[in-house]
Design a protein that fits this description.
Na+/H+ antiporter like fold, about 0% strand
Length: about 280
């Protein structure tokens, strides 16, 4: 992957995480003590069930190494900032959504390298030495994820009016950057994209639907309110696509691993939008 593309991916992730930080406060992290049950169920869905569902699908449906690793990469990423917006539109528990996104963004810094290493060996190894340098990977992700998010939070604390004004334009730019990255991957892989698209599309759709259903059903089964169940469903299905694409391009240095995240990033807007519409109708 050339240096320009790597730089763009890195900057896009930093910008997105900075934007997320602009909307966060310390209270968002303290909410785990205020709503422990809902937060716990959301974290279990995001950090445990999601990777297990991804691995289960790959065990049942054959896929190329590039698509398989890409699906697992998606499954270990945290929820994306878009889930917060969709929770707001769905009139769900937006505060819970923000809390889950913030906490998983920190925890996955440490879980992604280990699970991704397993995925590389399991699906793309075949005797090759492709294991990640875990301390180095954690360091890179800390710089690209935690640091800009922390800077955004500091700005929010010191100048909340500026942060509030910036949240909307930053979200718009973040989505545009994600679209540009996806288009770039499609163009660069145009010779194999059709074959990969079918594989990735089926697995991405199944992963998205299964995780969203799993999140909602588990929340309702454990007697959470419908608003909280909708939030957990969105958090389980709306992944940080920018992070997945950035890891594929900068850490794994192979944009082929980004095809599944690119396809998923398109699908999740449709399924997330459908859930929002259903949620709004149920409240009318």
């Amino acid at each position: 992957m050339d240096n320009t593309a790597t730089l763009i991916l890195g900057l896009a992730l930093i910008f997105t995480m900075w934007g997320m930080g602009l909307s966060l406060t310390i209270t968002d992290f303290k909410r785990i003590l205020q709503k422990p049950k809902a937060v716990f169920i959301g974290l279990v869905n995001q950090l445990i069930l999601l990777p297990l569902i991804g691995f289960g699908l790959l065990s049942l449906i054959p896929a190329s190494p590039e698509i398989a690793v890409g699906i697992m990469l998606l499954a270990v990423c945290p929820g994306g900032p878009t889930s917060n917006l969709l929770s707001l539109l769905a009139k769900a528990d937006t505060a819970l959504s923000v809390t889950l996104t913030a906490i998983t963004s920190i925890i996955t810094i440490f879980t992604i390298p280990f699970i991704l290493n397993f995925a590389l060996v399991r699906f793309a190894g075949e005797g090759q030495n492709i294991q990640l340098n875990i301390p180095e990977t954690i360091g890179k992700m800390f710089v690209a994820v935690i640091l800009p998010m922390a800077i955004g939070m500091i700005i929010n604390k010191r100048n909340s009016s500026f942060a509030e004004k910036m949240v909307r334009p930053v979200r718009i730019v973040s989505v545009l950057l994600l679209v540009l990255i996806i288009v770039g991957i499609i163009i660069s892989k145009r010779d194999v994209i059709l074959d990969y698209f079918v594989q990735a599309g089926i697995l991405a759709l199944l992963l998205n639907v299964c995780t969203m259903l799993g999140g909602f059903i588990s929340a309702k089964f454990l007697r959470l309110k419908s608003k909280q169940a909708t939030t957990i469903s969105l958090e389980s299905g709306i992944q940080n696509g920018t992070l997945a694409l950035a890891i594929a391009g900068t850490v794994l240095e192979n944009t082929s691993y980004g095809i599944a995240p690119a396809v998923y990033s398109i699908i999740m807007y449709f399924t997330g939008g459908l859930l929002v519409r259903m949620s709004i109708k149920s409240k009318i």
